[in-house]
Amino acid sequence: MSVITCVAPVNIAVIKYWGKRNEELILPLNDSISATLNVEYMRAKTTVMASPTFKENKIWLNGKEESFENPRLQHCMKELKQRARKNTDVVNWNIHVCSENNFPTAAGLASSAAGYACFVYAIAQLYGVEGDITAIARRGSGSACRSIYGGWVQWHVGKSDDGSDSFATQIAGVSHWPEMRILTLVVNSSRKKCSSTDGMRRSIATSSLLKYRVDHVVKDRVEGIIRAIKEKDFKAFAEITMKDSNQFHAICSDTYPPLSYVNEVSRRIIELIHAYNELRGTTKVAYTFDAGPNACLYLLEEDVPEVVALIQYVFPSDTERVEYFKGLPINPGSLSDELKVKIDIPKQKPGSIKYIIYTDVGEGARVLNDDNEHLLNDCGNPKRLN
Amino acid sequence: MSVITCVAPVNIAVIKYWGKRNEELILPLNDSISATLNVEYMRAKTTVMASPTFKENKIWLNGKEESFENPRLQHCMKELKQRARKNTDVVNWNIHVCSENNFPTAAGLASSAAGYACFVYAIAQLYGVEGDITAIARRGSGSACRSIYGGWVQWHVGKSDDGSDSFATQIAGVSHWPEMRILTLVVNSSRKKCSSTDGMRRSIATSSLLKYRVDHVVKDRVEGIIRAIKEKDFKAFAEITMKDSNQFHAICSDTYPPLSYVNEVSRRIIELIHAYNELRGTTKVAYTFDAGPNACLYLLEEDVPEVVALIQYVFPSDTERVEYFKGLPINPGSLSDELKVKIDIPKQKPGSIKYIIYTDVGEGARVLNDDNEHLLNDCGNPKRLN
């Protein structure tokens, strides 16, 4: 019997991935760039156990058994087995997989990226796979390739038809820009949404603006934001981040029928950030939105107290403080009366923002060495079920 | 003393005008196309009186005196005087102008287009201006040039730097497509918005997608929709209309900071129309949105009862029926239980749509020959003030 438990982080794109040039291989239309978030506060955790006694492959996600026949999962398994270098016995055994996120999947926080990164990373350890595994994680969920590494990560579009050059690399490590912080604002929403896969497919089929974005806009932005990250130029970084988020949502609107991922609360957050930056006379905060209404704000540590106070003022909580703030400890600053008056955004309904996760840039996927961390018991069954 | 009273209609663009290549002359970046609405239900009405006894030019808009020094108004006056062919006395007299809309200006229903069309048309009559006056109306408000004519109208982008070839022509007359109907859904909104002029300026300065739209998308759409109008091909007409509305709002999202004219109710209307078209198995209704949250729906007369019943079901009124429906008489159909079940859109808060104006395609600007219609009394003062 062989067992391993790993964790993998969430990543938040600042140059967006939208559209596959090859659906089977999950090859993107353009490069994308993200920061990897601290694995402490938002992560997938996965235990993989291989045993000659297991009659079949099994997988449990967040306490519920799911089918192992999922084609994306099968693609990852096939590539991992081809690249296995040790434990040929282990590679032939069946496996049990148990995976959990420490944040609500329903919150729409890119759980599949962390999940597939963790799955691929754990099995790669078990099978002794050497070299790059980001291209394998990509077969599970495109943006999973960016969750293998910590710090600032680039997923390269690649040129090859077989996808061999569409992998992720690190632009800068975790310690490169230590002042950077991320606030994830989890927005209340009951709206059902079109899955990213379906949405991308529809955009490719119908949006003429997407083609223009891919051919003429993204390249300069990628170069610009890499420069901004390397030089720690927050203003340049923030402006490219916001423009790219806005352009992604423009592509969604140009899709037919249109895709609408952000909602009225998201739009108020956008307004608030622009109003705040204007009042402060420089770009202090950047927003970015993926295929859902939650906002991720990038900002520097020194600005966190005031920005959190401002968010709390415009989007009051309807719960206790302890539930409103998650992640790193937050001490909201006091909001000057001047700011309250000048920020001309009406107070929103309590609970419009459900909670805030405060975090920083962190390391990539890693092994947990404590046996107590395993999510499977010695028989290969989940310790907890839903 | 010389006096005239005219009315001019509202027009609703199906190929959108967004962005000026010359701000002073109000020259657009691309052709646009609209239908002119029945002047009975939504119109500007303007009385112009010229008299040798008037000490100065004066203008009242919706019962409030405004400045005659407005540069756009001055540009129109200058061109009208240059083109005057009769009554040289009258042309040298000062004038009093009184103008009223029969729909709330605040509703964001392109009142400036009807207003300037009416102003220019009335003075052109008074001064005996011959030939095209749409290019003069354009100097007041770009889309005003399309409100001079009835039926289906095209505003040509033109090539000349002096704007002389940027005027409107009729694609088809009022009687060409007699089954066409328009439902204007006036959406509740307290949101202040960025004016079209400022919004356009910001889009030109920041949206790379706008340039692509202008250079590579609009031309095919203009050709396609003219063909659809001429052939009365509703499906083709409707799809181009919706795609162009969506692309306009995509450009708004790609603008920095982003412009957001539609709101959550607008988005629900979009969802509802797509869901309805899908259930009906063909495109029965088209939506289009200008720089505001109100929807204009194009549809054929035979489909009005069911569509109105559906809108009433999803967006219940919070007022009496008599106030909810304006314009042509409406008899909402009964909604089949099947449709209620299959349209998977939750009922919205009563009053989300304030009221519905039901109308058809109508004639352009014209003179009212009844002296009782004058908005100014014999002394040149408004009969009514606010």
Describe the structure.
2 copies of one chain form a homodimer. In chain A, 35% of the residues lie in helices and 23% in strands. Chain A has 386 residues and is an alpha+beta fold. Chain A folds into 2 domains: 2-174 and 365-373, Ribosomal Protein S5, domain 2; 180-360, Alpha-Beta Plaits (2-Layer Sandwich), CATH 3.30.70.890. In chain A, helix 3 (111-127) packs across helix 4 (134-140). The model of chain A has no long low-confidence stretch (mean pLDDT 94). The A-B interface holds A 206, 208-209, 212-213, 216-217, 239, 242-243, 246-247, 249-258, 260, 263-264, 267, 270-271, 274 and B 206, 208-209, 212-213, 216-217, 239, 242-243, 246-247, 249-258, 260, 263-264, 267, 270-271, 274.
List keywords for this structure.
17 strands, 6-stranded mixed sheet, alpha+beta, 2 domains, Ribosomal Protein S5, domain 2, 11 helices, globular, 386 residues, homodimer
Concise summary:
Chain A is of the alpha+beta class and 386 residues long.
Describe the oligomeric state of these chains in a short phrase.
homodimer
The tally of strands of chain A reads: 17
Biggest interface, CB < 8 A: A-B, 29 and 29 residues
Q: CATH class of the largest domain in chain A, please?
A: Alpha Beta
Average pLDDT of chain A works out at 94
- Derived from helix and strand composition plus strand pairing, the structural class of chain A reads alpha+beta
- Estimate the strand proportion of chain A: 15-25%
Structural shape of chain A: globular
In which order are the strands of the major sheet of chain A placed? 8-7-9-6-1-17
How many DSSP helices of chain A? 11
- Stretches of chain A where pLDDT is under 50 for at least 5 consecutive residues are none
The number of distinct structural domains of chain A comes to: 2
The biggest beta sheet of chain A, please? 6 strands, mixed
Helix content of chain A: 25-40%
Could you say what the CATH architecture of the largest domain in chain A is?
Answer: 2-Layer Sandwich
Compute the separation of the termini of chain A in Å: 26 Å
